[in-house]
Amino acid sequence: MSSIDPYINKDLGERAIARHEVREIEQRHTQDGLRERDSSASSLSEGQDDIVIIYNRVPKTASTSFTNIAYDLCGKNHYHVLHINTTKNNPVMSIQDQVRFVKNVTEWREMKPAFYHGHVSFLDFTKFGVKRKPIYINVIRDPIERLTFDECVSAGGSDCAPEKLWLQIPFFCGHYSECW
């Protein structure tokens, strides 16, 4: 046996678990849809209790200030603020992590309504069979305007390096490899 076999087996096992979890999500949403169809009209306030907003924070766009506002208002407005931590602060999640994230966001009823925030790229919940998708919000800045570009270049600032000027774009593109 080669030394890579345990890693391959682990990856295959994680993929099998992810496929199983996707099937569970699809089954749950089918059951939820049937229950919703068969039940009488629910009140507007019940629907609002299930709202999930995801603020996929883009670097260098005043995201910390915006997030602080969410924390300041959550108690008064009766919602939960949850930080999205990713492995090594990588904005792209593995397929297994995507499945877990979708499952956690859609099933964690005690933490709804919810405002999730983190430096994470857009995730299309519909590809996991989710009917009631979260609402994505964001704040952006013009990549040139966010810097006093001439001053940055003359001072040798790291923020004005060409590769950092377009740092924001991949966060909207999603988890596709072409984005990163």
What are the SSEs and their pairings?
Blueprint (H helix, E strand, L loop, with lengths): L4 H34 L5 H5 L3 E5 L6 H15 L2 E4 L11 H13 L6 E5 L16 E3 L11 H7 L6 H4 L4 H4 L7
Parallel strand pairs: 1-3, 1-4, 2-3
Helix pairs in contact: 1-4
GO molecular function: heparan sulfate 2-sulfotransferase activity
Membrane topology: Single-pass type II membrane protein
Family: Belongs to the sulfotransferase 3 family.
In words, what does this structure look like?
- There is one protein chain.
- This protein has 180 residues and is α/β, with parallel strands linked by helices.
- The chain has a single domain (5-39, 46-140), classed as P-loop containing nucleotide triphosphate hydrolases (Rossmann fold, 3-Layer(aba) Sandwich).
- It has 7 helices and 4 strands.
- The protein has helices at residues 5-38, 44-48, 63-77, 95-107, 149-155, 162-165, 170-173, and strands at 52-56, 80-83, 114-118, 135-137.
- The protein has a 4-stranded parallel beta sheet with strand order 2-3-1-4, with helices on one face.
- The longest helix is centred in the N-terminal third of the chain and has 34 residues, at 5-38.
- The two termini are 34 Å apart.
